Predict the 3D structure of the following.
Amino acid sequence: EVQLVESGGGLVQPGGSLRLSCAASGFTFSSYSMNWVRQAPGKGLEWVSYISSSSSTIYYADSVKGRFTISRDNAKNSLYLQMNSLRDEDTAVYYCARDIRGYSSSRAFDYWGQGTLVTVSS
Amino acid sequence: EIVLTQSPGTLSLSPGERATLSCRASQSVSSSYLAWYQQKPGQAPRLLIYGASSRATGIPDRFSGSGSGTDFTLTISRLEPEDFAVYYCQQYGSSPGMYTFGQGTKLEIK
């Protein structure tokens, strides 16, 4: 069974930093691209970042470029999101999501974690 | 950047009825890169449709997707009580590597 479990969320002051983790199991993690998606309270979904299976290709949404860093450790089956210079508007539930590129030419996210809440507030 | 506009914002229907949800793109989108998700309160989104019309694993056949270019549709043929949720469309590729979501359609019980 595919499982994605996020951790690392919490309360942080504006300008602070936080590192999110996503532990993957039930599939060959090293064969799949991964993403982070966030959802502000009561709002819609916003894609944050993408990393290819080998970490060779990385993309960011303009809203986080230069502040967030995505990475992965295939030996540990883990995905990370380092978030620096946090702003009030970064408050959201952060989800990790598996990309279907591992088995399809389409683009979508087939498995999602349960999310971890990041609250940026003084 | 391609903007996805979903309509209606809220759809009120009864179980057993047919639901038609629309997703319109500001520029043409590759059908291969259009997906639909369902999200219930307090839960993560669930992939329903990818490639505009392919059902994801385990998705009942009452869910179907169609469309091309700038106009895409999610149809639920006969609503079950568990189908009342928020639905999002998603596209890939307006900029390299970039995904965007529509603002969502809330499907509520009438």
